[in-house]
């Protein structure tokens, strides 16, 4: 779902993967090293639009994950399934060396992908990540997600709460994010929620060879301190940054600050 005059949507290209399923993506075409950016649960590649001006020295490859935005649903709704689809997508594009940036569910997918592509991933940035993202079957949030029915109202209370931020974010951007999320069928919301309950990325994290930067907000309502602490102990080489007062979407709340942290980290990792 997109609005008339939606420049981000118009920039999307589509490729068909083996099996006939397609992936939609934006490719900045930059001449620098490739960065693959993976968005969160119910989002689309638009999630990273505000980072793009600050990362203009890189080639940004920003797909809609399967079942999100303009990408077809794949064979499953676990983050491991998404990683398989994105692995095939990269092979189709001929991209063999890249850094990874993932937000929330996209960060989980990035961990799985980095574990599969140990020799190809030069650096890994995790925004608001978790190794064990189960929201709890009886939690209010899980009950609200399971209660979603089509058509989902983009202006309803659930999506307004879902896209609330701890710091000011442009209302127009959040409105477009809600529209994108409302376009995702309720069955996909439900399937991913169930996949989270069955996800444990501790083994995959131990397979990651690339240096890792974890960025989280101290006011993150989904993945609080214990999630950040587990990440800080999970990887061979990891640096953790907690942004005081930031929520689950620090790259929306302060894209310039988050981009600066990433660029510094990429420089330390030897990316030029």
Mind explaining what this structure looks like?
The protein has 272 residues and is an alpha/beta fold. It has a single domain, classed as 3-Layer(aba) Sandwich (Rossmann fold). The protein is built from eleven helices and eight strands. It has helices spanning 7-10, 79-93, 105-116, 140-146, 157-162, 171-182, 186-197, 202-207, 225-232, 250-253, 255-268, and strands at residues 13-16, 22-27, 34-38, 59-63, 98-103, 121-127, 212-217, 238-243. It has an eight-stranded mixed sheet, with helices on both faces. Helix 2 crosses helix 3 (105-116). It is globular. The chain starts with 6 loop residues before the first helix and ends with a helix. 46% of the residues are buried.
